[in-house]
Amino acid sequence: MLLPRTDQMQLDRFYDYLEKVAATEIGYPVAFDFDYSALAPFLSFSLNNAGDPFTPMTYLLNSHDFEREVVSFYAQLARAPDDKWWGYVTNGSTEGNLYGLYLARELLPDGIVYFSQDSHYSVGKNLHFLNMRHIMIRSKPNGEIDYDDLRETLRIRRDAPPIIFANVGTTMKEARDDIGVIRSILDDLAIENRYIHCDAALCGGYAAFLDPPPAWDFEDGADSIAISGHKFLGSPIPCGIVLARRSHVERIGHSVAYIGSVDTTISGSRNGFTPLLLWYAIRSLGQEGMKKRIAHSLRLAAYAEAEFRKADIEAWRNPQALTVVFPEPPKEVRDNWQLASAGGSSHLICMPHIQREQIDELIGDIRKAGGARK
Ligand SMILES: *Cc1c(COP(=O)(O)O)cnc(C)c1O
């Protein structure tokens, strides 16, 4: 498959462009410190992981073995009950969250979904797809769900079983809704019929390595958890992991003769390459390597917060967060550094590949643009 020269030039220009813009990308929660070139030979196969990764499939060009290892690794990090969990590699946390909400709806068809104002924009869309009743709960200034508002709202809607959509790491402020606190609110109100989904898109990659860890996992009370693979771990193709209690999934699977497997996933054909990427990262880093990466990123976030303050820019971050929030700088700075903004704030996310020099340069740019203020 050779290209005409002009098309090759177009690709070359695109490559140069990517190298350039990657150097100033510090606003999104995606790690760049990976090298998966050893996996290039696998691009010569039409890998397809259709169906359930735990069930044999007629089409043999699948990477289900690797996919199972990947989800097992995260099941262990998320303290899933032995042999009573299930999961698969998704296209990302939007799909993982859709899956969690879908399970919740099948289990509690009359349920109401509670989610905070600071939830990811895709949550509203997922609720619309699934046509689920929902109530938005206030957030506290740090981005965490307002437990008082949640308690009051649950109290007056006791007729419908609650489905809690918890954020462990909100998109803008990396605030973590405490699943332990949520569970005790439900217990206090004697609400037994309930479901808790945990959106751990970014933080699921390292929550287990934090000290103390946030309350986010199965032992803390989650029924399902979504994690993105391209965020903390890092991947050239968006992907993720969804985990759920197995009994919930058994309610929705149907056998499909055409693929010789069980249809437990959202997509039909599924990416067989991303499980290889995730597997490669997990095996090459190991838990020790991951611990080092998060420790490095946390040091960087502390450095960034301190440097912003030295420069008279009111920056802050949640405890043990990689996300440093600061007043929205002028547009030219936001554009150059690809900074997301909402409600007058922007953020820098100290992913493992970010360098101190980039932070220093960003702060210099904000000052030059007159964006520093007390
Ligand atoms: C990124 C993110 C998502 C969406 O995840 P994708 O993998 O991009 O689909 C959902 N929730 C939160 C909190 C996120 O940060």
What does this structure look like?
The protein has two domains: about 5-35 and about 285-370, Aspartate Aminotransferase, domain 1 (Alpha-Beta Complex), CATH 3.90.1150; about 40-280, Type I PLP-dependent aspartate aminotransferase-like (Major domain) (Aspartate Aminotransferase, domain 2, 3-Layer(aba) Sandwich), CATH 3.40.640.10. The chain is α/β, with parallel strands linked by helices. Helix 6 links the parallel strand 4 (about 160-165) and strand 5 (about 195-200). The radius of gyration is 21 Å and the shape is globular. The model has no long low-confidence stretch (mean pLDDT about 95). The N and C termini lie far apart (about 60 Å). About 40% of the residues lie in helices and about 15% in strands. It contains eleven helices and twelve strands. Helix 2 (about 65-75) runs parallel beside helix 9 (about 275-310), helix 5 (about 145-155) packs parallel to helix 6 (about 180-190) and helix 9 (about 275-310) crosses helix 11. It has a seven-stranded mixed sheet, sandwiched between helices. A three-stranded antiparallel sheet has the order 10-12-11, with helices on one face. The protein has a two-stranded antiparallel ribbon with strand order 8-9. It has helices at about 5-20, 65-75, 95-105, 120-130, 145-155, 180-190, 230-235, 245-250, 275-310, 330-335, 355-370, and strands at about 85-90, 110-115, 135, 160-165, 195-200, 225-230, 240-245, 255, 260-265, 325, 340, 345-350. The longest helix has about 35 residues, at about 275-310. The structure holds pyridoxal-5'-phosphate (PLP).
